[in-house]
Design brief:
Blueprint lengths: L5 E6 L9 H12 L5 E8 L8 E4 L2 E6 L16 H17 L5 H17 L4 E5 L4 H12 L4 E7 L10 H15 L4 E4 L2 H10 L5 E4 L18 E6 L9 H14 L3 E6 L15 E4 L4 H10 L2 E5 L11 H9 L3 E5 L4 H8 L3 E5 L3 H16 L8 H5 L3 H17 L1
Parallel strand pairs: 1-2, 1-5, 2-4, 5-6, 6-7, 7-8, 9-10, 9-12, 10-11, 12-13, 13-14
Antiparallel strand pairs: 3-4
Helix pairs in contact: 1-13, 3-4, 7-11
């Protein structure tokens, strides 16, 4: 390594070949941190024997450490049989109540590998990303021993503040937060409200930085209208975030307009009920690669965002940035006072309605439909949408890293 380069190690269980918003975030960290200034090493989990133990990706050396713990979460897959899907969900829920550290074996292996890497190529900084909490704990143990190594704890979402976790896990995470606060140099998260909560929980930490998710492609938006008004939804439905209120409003809208609609569910578990009148209107598309998903979103007439209200603020949802990037109207069913709604309305990028307000949801659908019918595009703030690319968010992480390494 050139003497002027700094060596950064990223600790995360979310990396190729796994998929998801968290994986995309980690990929962006590696891809957009300046390679002229940093040498990046990634330590992640080996999900199966098909993934190589080490390889070069995005210019970084990626190591995969096995996790031999007996009780592991089972990943659900879109399109799998309903009974198998529910069995997996049940197992994962029970596991969340019973487990303490699912990735404890990976954490031990990661700690040993960190020492080995550091002996050969000095580590200047560590970025660890939650969840799971074991990534932070491995970083904590290493940085407590090597006090000159800087540490950024990337929380992404809440830890102990997550209202959906069982109390046993919440108490564990609260203890970990108190522990990390004594050693972490900086904390990052996906939104300002979540970051503000961490500032209250961890006042000992010196630096806090919002690093949002953003989108990560170069697809140029195009003007395209389908023969039938088409609404797309990407991802899965979890917990209370189900499309029941959307279907109720859609029933009213279709009856009032006497029109047809087409609904595309991309990579979605069919874990919700579809009214009989929309059975033939719904198309379930298996999980696709990120570029393929973006391509479908760009060809839709509107993209659907559903976020059930929760007792917290700061929920964007990673898919929102991809929706905004293709510049098709967003139909948002969400907390109209939270950051996602504020972003949509601030960019003039769609129509928002409270999650349970059927009349407002119908009005939002009608707004997108009228654009399709008149073949008109929204006058969105396109320059600000361009700034939602992940490279600009990672630039904030880079400035933070430079600040720490200079101190």
């Amino acid at each position: 390594m050139p003497r002027d380069k700094k060596h950064i190690v990223l600790l995360t269980t979310w990396f190729t070949p796994r998929q998801g918003v968290a994986v995309n975030r980690m990929h962006a960290f590696v891809k957009y941190l300046d390679p002229a200034k940093y040498e990046i090493t990634v330590i992640t989990v080996q999900p199966d024997n098909r993934a190589p133990e080490s390889e070069m990706l995005f210019g970084a050396h990626v190591y995969r450490v096995k996790n031999k713990s007996l009780f592991k979460r089972i990943n659900e897959r879109a399109g799998e049989p309903k009974m198998l899907h529910y069995a997996k969900v049940t197992w994962n829920v029970l596991l969340s109540f019973a487990r303490k550290l699912e990735y404890s074996d990976w954490m031990r292996g990661t700690g040993a590998l960190l020492e080995e890497i550091h002996a050969k190529n000095r580590i200047h900084a560590i970025i660890s990303s939650y969840s799971p909490v074991e990534a932070h704990l491995a970083a904590f143990a290493f940085c407590r021993k090597h006090t000159d190594v800087k540490w950024i704890a990337d929380m992404r979402d809440e830890m102990s503040g997550n209202p959906h976790l069982p109390k046993k896990e919440t108490r564990l995470l609260a203890r970990v937060e108190r522990q990390l606060a004594q050693k972490a140099d900086a904390v990052t998260s996906v939104s300002l409200p979540i970051l503000a909560d961490f500032q209250k929980l961890m006042p000992e930490v010196k630096y806090f930085e919002e690093v949002r998710n953003g989108y990560d492609h170069e697809v140029e938006p195009s003007v395209h209208f389908n023969p039938v008004f088409t609404i797309a939804y990407a991802g899965s439905f979890y917990g209370l975030s189900k499309p029941q209120t959307f279907f109720e409003a859609l029933k009213n809208f279709v009856a009032r307009q006497n029109c047809s609609v087409r609904l595309q569910f991309i990579g979605v578990h069919r874990n919700f009920s579809i009214p009989a009148e929309f059975e033939t209107s719904c198309e379930f598309i298996p999980p696709l690669s990120y570029p393929e998903t973006v391509s479908l979103l760009a060809k839709a007439d509107a993209n659907l965002l559903i976020l059930a209200p929760v007792q917290r603020k700061g929920v964007y949802s990673g898919k929102l940035f991809d929706y905004l990037s293709v510049q098709k109207p967003v139909i948002g069913l969400l907390d109209t006072t939270d950051v996602a709604a504020q972003l949509i309305t601030g960019l003039n990028a769609g129509f928002v309605a409270a999650f349970t307000d059927i009349t407002a949801i119908e009005k939002a659908i009608a707004g997108a439909y009228e654009l399709w019918k008149s073949q008109t595009v929204l006058q969105m703030d396109r320059e600000k949408i361009k700034l939602l690319h992940r490279r600009y968010e990672v630039a904030k992480l880079e400035r933070l890293t430079d600040k720490l390494l200079a101190s």
